[in-house]
Amino acid sequence: MELLMSIVVGVFFMVGTYLIMTRSLIRVVVGINILSHSTHLLLLTMAGLKTGAPPLLNRGEEAFTDPLPQALILTAIVISFGVTAFTIVLAYRTYKVHRTDDLEQLRGIRNE
Amino acid sequence: MNSLLIVPIVLPAIIGAILVFFAKFQRMQRVISAVAMITILSASIWLAIAVYNEGIMTMNMGDWPIPYGIPLVADMFATVMLLLSAIVGVCCLFFAFRTIHPDREKFYFYPFYFFLLTGVNGSFLTGDLFNLFVFFEVMLIASYILIVHGGSGFQLRESFKYVTINVFSSMFFLAGVAYLYAATGTLNIADLGVRVAELDQEGVLNVVAVVLLFVFAMKGALFPLYFWLPDSYTGPPAAIAALFGGLLTKVGIYAIIRMFTVVFNHDPTFTHNLILFIAGATMFFGVLGAVAQYNFKRILSYHIISQVGYMVMGLGIFTPLALAGAIYYIVHHIIVKTALFLFAGISEKITGTNDLKQMGGLLKTHPTFSWMFFITAISLAGIPPLSGFFSKFPLILSGMQEERYLITAVALLVGLLTLFSMIKIFSFAFWGRQKHTEPQAKIKTGSLLLSTAPLVALTIILGLMAEPIFSYSLEIAEELLDPAVYIESVLEE
User: Fold this and answer.
1) Most CB within 10 Å of its CB: which of A21, A53, B257, B410?
2) Keywords, A to Z (chain B) (predicted)?
């Protein structure tokens, strides 16, 4: 299972990186989003997938799944929600002001 | 008493939240933020003194036992950084009162100012790698907003790049955290120090070290990851640019020094030589950028890059003397760089431009301002009685002692080129024919200079009292080079 997850993470990283390198603003935003999700999956996979019972004590179980990565991912997801919302608004404003969403045209002139 | 450790983090967060409600009341906002900022400054001073006298202070959040809970750790290095961030915070805030446009002021400038400080102070104090990530994000989200604050076309364009790059590196931070957790099973920095020592730092742990170095190098603008910095720091108004120039990159440097002294200190021939190479390249290419530019703020931005190289060079040589030099350099740099960015703001207010070719003759119309700038500029370049000299000297000396002649030569050359580009600013903007109009020449700068005066005074004091301050940074360096003290005081609580 870990192997499959690692491959999925790799594919997500690839897709995210590809989208970040495209010329359209909104694709870059989507790329950032996919990249952060792949990192969350990586965080989940690296700690080992389900290896025992849920981490509830006094129920006669011996082995427990590590709850820490899930707590970490929860925090990271909240942060990435915030950042995604911000980047979407930023991309929209940039489009409104510059009248283009083509990053090639947003390069700017040196020392303007 | 240890629970007072949390004041520099929680106070700005609460004040920021309160200020959101008073966004439209200009005077009230100013009063609240000034009082809060001075409280934070006094808390930082108290903390620095307490830690100096009583040793490392730790606090476990929610009383969870280590290594399950999240500790806050204040050692001498962290408290020095806290103190500097508070000083910079006060000066930039009072400068912002005078210069920031009322529209911006009413658009939640102060809340984000305080959220930024929350993130910065939190990253200095935390003792947990994931918590460091969270505080980094708090700081970065506030910085995204401050950098685009005002929403001019130039700002929007450059901040989109800034945001993309930083989100990208944050994702790598998280990936590094994931690898490290898989390899060691802990994220507490002190505990990591123990586990990495047990595991022998080679193979996968070196990979993790390089991933984290990459991330912090991106935030700290090291070679080859500095290209985002000059453009994004020229956009925002002077008060914000000064805060960023003084603080933000140094948080990355702080994290590098923390990680590579406490955790990844077992394979210095690989990691620290890599750091040394990066340091040399950063210094050299940064200063080349500065020499080529004719824009006031952009020259200063490129200087940030080259000077970050000096700090990392101290870490790369990895002796007490070199590390002490690096710490002295951080102190000197934060103060001087903030002052210079504020001066850039003043000259922009007078002449209405940042282009050096359209400036001139400020020395005749604004002598006090010009001489204050001159003192700070030669301090940056490293002329003896000021702090710049005493921060470079131990670095060069330890480079000689350790027989790292190449990096020493690069450091000396870069010092020369820094002097050259500061002289360029001075000769273009301050000497020569007056290019600004008569009404512009009559603009009063007294109240603005008042908020930069403490910084100028500090660089003189740092130079004249070099001996006690240097022995203080030597103590910090010895504390850093002996991570056992740090690890013990965190783990035994």
Assistant:
1) B257
2) Antiport, Cell membrane, Membrane, Transmembrane, Transmembrane helix, Transport
Indicate the pLDDT class of residue B141, thresholds 50, 70 and 90: very high
- Beta-carbon separation of B164 and A91 below 8 A: no
Of A28, A68, A98, the CB nearest to B157: A98
DSSP assignment of B1-29 equals -GGGGGHHHHHHHHHHHHHHHTTT-HHHH
> Tokens representing B27?
């005077």
Asked if residue B43 lies in contact with residue B4, where contact means CB atoms within 8 angstroms, the answer is: yes
Task: Check if the beta carbon of residue B233 is closer than 8 Å to that of residue B301.
Answer: yes
Residue with tokens 């400038």: B109
In a domain, A111, yes or no: no
CA distance B381 to B414: 9
Alpha-carbon gap: A29 to the closest alpha carbon of chain B (Å): 8
Domain span holding position B435? 2-491
Q: SS3 letters for B169-226? A: HHHHHHHHHHHHHHHHCCCEHHHHHHHHHHHCCCCHHHHHHHHHHHHHHHHHCCCCCC
Q: State residue B58 phi and psi, 5-degree precision.
A: -130, 155
What ipTM is given for this predicted complex? 0.91
Residue A10 tokens read as: 């790799």
- Inside any domain, residue A42: yes
Task: List pLDDT tens digits, range B426-478.
Answer: 888 888 788 788 787 778 878 888 888 999 999 899 888 888 999 999 999 99
- Which pLDDT score is estimated for A108? 67
Among candidates B168, B177, B298 on the partner chain, residue whose Cβ is nearest the Cβ of A35: B168
CATH of the domain at A71: 1.10.287
Number of domains in chain A: 1
Q: Which residues pair with B58 in a beta bridge?
A: B73
CB pair distance less than 8 Å for A108 and B154: yes
Q: Which domain holds residue A44?
A: 1-53+62-106
Cα B216 to its chain centre, rounded Å, is 13
pLDDT digits (tens, 9 = 90+) for B340-376: 999 999 888 888 888 888 888 888 888 888 889 988 9
Total number of domains in chain B = 1
Judged by a CB distance cut-off of 8 A, whether residue A23 touches chain B is: no
Question: In 3D, which of B327, B144, B135, B341 has the Cα closest to residue B246?
Answer: B341
Q: Does A19 touch chain B (CB under 8 A)?
A: no
pLDDT digits (tens, 9 = 90+) for B369-423: 888 998 898 888 888 878 888 888 999 999 999 888 999 999 999 989 998 888 8
Among the listed residues B173, B174, B190, the one whose alpha carbon sits nearest the alpha carbon of residue B73: B190
Interface probe, candidates B169, B174, B211, B301, chain A, greatest A C-beta count within 10 A: B174
B1 has pLDDT over 60: no
Cβ neighbour number for residue B476 with a 10 Å cutoff: 23
Residue type, B252: G
Report pLDDT for A16: 93
> What pTM does this model have?
0.92
pLDDT band at A112 (very low <50, low <70, confident <90, very high): very low
